[in-house]
């Protein structure tokens, strides 16, 4: 545990140290990696700790991103408003979807979250008066935080994303080692035993679902500012699948693993797509490789068996 | 007679056309040690699942300390003081022995919803968890991951988890299942040492152990109670000898 904290600290410090000398393109990718890491970690709370594989995580991410984009462009809302409304919108969406999804388990849970994710995508695509449909919402201005540095600059925005990601990691890290986090692990291992011990399993799963969706929303808020553009692509199934892959690649139930997985996928995707349009083919190959050679992800492969 | 710890009135459970539990009545006094015996398929484990709330009853009523819990969710029955073990070991295999026990200890406290403070900071919980482990002889295995434990140790942990919540009624589903004779004796000793205030209902195939622990025996056959009484009476009952003891 403390070694993992040290490892994450080292990676973060290293990223913070090299950022000023990085060229623009790798720097934006690194920024993206930290934002997407929040999304991957949020899914890990659900998948790795609670044992619930969601295929609809792009929904909460997307709802928050759209909320920010709409507020910032049409209402010229400030950062605080956008942040709060974006996160609350994601939490409310997760709270509503959770009521439907938590009834099911395993593959059924997967299919229901997939379907609910598609509903959000459908709304983004078809509710043109609100979302501008396929065109997406462009020109989302970066926020003014009253800092000496404008977040329009790539470097300040990178640090802004890094600090937010570290904060999210600390909060989620605290969650998973808390008594509540332990109860999530218990549910992952044996729901029937948890019920008999006196846990309202449904309630714990539901809370985990909403918390996970809320952190996905935080990632969505950053994403809207990072891209300056939000479109149905952000809420489509591929985004959910990629997030799931980041968690599987990094190692479910470790938080830091999925964050590293997120960074790997972001860089791989952007470098490979320079050479080929068949990016998804590579993604599939990576996935098969992970399942075959490191079923517990990179974190699992490095850590080995726990004794 | 006073208040009963557990009372079942005409409890039935049907799976399609099969009546696995058929009109079972049971009255268990506080602090009583009651054995539930019967051949395979007699409905013993199903009866436990009905009492603990894992399965809904088809008809009948279940009372825990004179409170009707027939339609009460399993976790609420646990809060009323009901605990059980499983015939097929049901633990948290990738967690440590101590973590398993902590889950049992925090289950009936509001601490289980605490999110922003590490579990390790709750020293009182850890102390109680270690007490529960010591009570079953697993104190020195606290740091071991459960799936690496021997079968016998896993059976001991089953008991520790059930005891950690300080239950008033304990259902033990074949605690010696799969144990060697030597391990079975250790388990029997452990069960003998249980707090006499706890009401214990035990399913046990090993007659020696069942009759050693329980003074009172209920015999199930095809879902029905066919005999119910003090152990000497049951041992002498010709019907029981015929269908169960095979003598």
Description:
The complex is a heterodimer of chains A (307) and B (247). Chain A is mainly α. Chain A contains 14 helices and two strands. Chain A has one domain. Chain A has helices spanning 2-18, 24-49, 57-74, 79-101, 106-126, 128-131, 154-177, 179-189, 191-197, 201-227, 237-250, 256-275, 279-293, 297-303, and strands spanning 137-138, 229-230. In chain A, helix 7 (154-177) packs across helix 8 (179-189), helix 11 (237-250) crosses helix 12 (256-275) and helix 11 runs parallel beside helix 13 (279-293). The model of chain A has no long low-confidence stretch (mean pLDDT 89). Chain B folds into two domains: 1-81 and 169-188 and 199-247, Rossmann fold (3-Layer(aba) Sandwich), CATH 3.40.50; 91-166, no CATH class. Chain B contains nine helices and ten strands. Chain B has helices at 44-52, 74-79, 97-106, 123-135, 151-164, 181-192, 207-213, 231-236, 238-245; strands spanning 6-15, 18-28, 33-37, 59-64, 67-68, 82-84, 169-173, 199-203, 216-221, 224-230. In chain B, helix 3 packs parallel to helix 5. Chain B is globular and about 55 Å long. The interface between A and B is medium-sized, with 26 and 40 residues.
